[in-house]
Design brief:
Layout lengths: L14 H10 L8 E2 L2 E2 L11 H7 L11 E5 L5 H8 L4 E6 L2 H14 L4 E4 L12 E7 L8 H9 L2 E8 L31 E3 L12 E3 L1 H10 L3 E7 L2 E5 L4 E2 L2 E2 H7 L3
Parallel strand pairs: 3-4, 3-6, 4-5, 6-7
Antiparallel strand pairs: 1-2, 7-11, 8-9, 10-11, 12-13
């Protein structure tokens, strides 16, 4: 199976027509190659998200025949499309932004991929029926006022692996936490790499939805705290995880927390 082959029987509009259609859908955050027409050629991060994907791609099976994929915060559909290219039987992308959903639908249809897109908040992701073999949770975490609550809900949808990415700031070293700390041990909070989340009261990078930005230690600690085993770190801000410890006595962590039994 050639996962890079272009889909068959796709009617390709002229370059000028396609460029106009892309522009009419508004500003794109995902730069997707639509038969030679880039959707975000002037992206401030460069060829994004391909600049990250090229480091992550080999950590995902090349043949996803029969697999199901959930793309949380799908944006313009880049990751959904990449998973469909690999033969996933079902790909569902969700987002709360109609502009991004319209862009994703257009990109998938233009490239001839049968992908489902629906409007859904990450906080309601647990209401989607069933689980998915692979769940992508890319570039969403730091946009949330309640990030760990959202992560706990996302995990309920993961059957095999979670692909997680978040912006990182602060110290880049990893910190090995003790099992417990004395109440008067305040120096530990100043140690390099101690897990830390930075709260943005107003805006960061001109975006009022950038709320919480972790350092590297905090990102990994939260993944473990959510019951995930980190199996790969293919790119500095990206982790591949498996939900090996997500349930205790048959209950997911967020259920136990809400019940007061965690």
């Amino acid at each position: 199976m050639n996962v890079n082959a272009a889909p068959e029987m796709v009617t390709r509009p002229g370059r000028a027509v396609l460029s106009k259609q892309v522009q009419e859908l508004g500003e794109w955050f995902h730069n997707i190659d639509l038969f030679g027409v880039p959707t975000a050629p002037q992206h401030f991060l460069g060829d994004f998200p391909n600049i990250k994907w090229k480091h992550i791609a080999n950590s995902i099976p090349a043949n996803l025949s029969g697999a199901t994929v959930l793309d949380v915060g799908c944006n313009g559909g880049f990751y959904s499309i990449e998973m469909k290219k690999r033969g996933a039987s079902r790909v569902l992308g969700i987002d709360v932004d109609d502009r991004y959903l319209n862009q994703a639908r257009f990109a998938a249809a233009t490239l001839g991929h049968d992908i489902e897109f629906q409007k859904c908040s990450v906080y309601n992701v647990d209401q989607i029926p069933g689980q998915f073999d692979f769940v992508f949770f890319m570039g969403v975490f730091y946009h949330l006022r309640y990030p760990l609550y959202a992560l706990d809900k996302v995990i309920t949808k993961v059957r095999h692996q979670l692909v997680f990415q978040t912006m990182l700031r602060g110290d880049e070293s990893l910190h090995t936490s003790k099992d417990d700390y004395h109440f008067w041990d305040t120096k530990v909070f100043s140690e390099p790499g101690f897990p830390c989340m930075y709260f943005i009261e107003k805006k960061y990078a001109g975006d009022q939805t950038n709320w919480w930005i972790p350092n590297r230690s905090a990102a990994e600690a939260m993944l473990r705290s959510a019951g995930l085993k980190i199996v790969a770190n293919p790119e500095f801000e990206t982790w591949i995880c498996e939900p090996q410890f997500a349930k205790t006595n048959g209950h997911y962590i967020h259920d136990a927390e809400l019940e007061g039994t965690l």
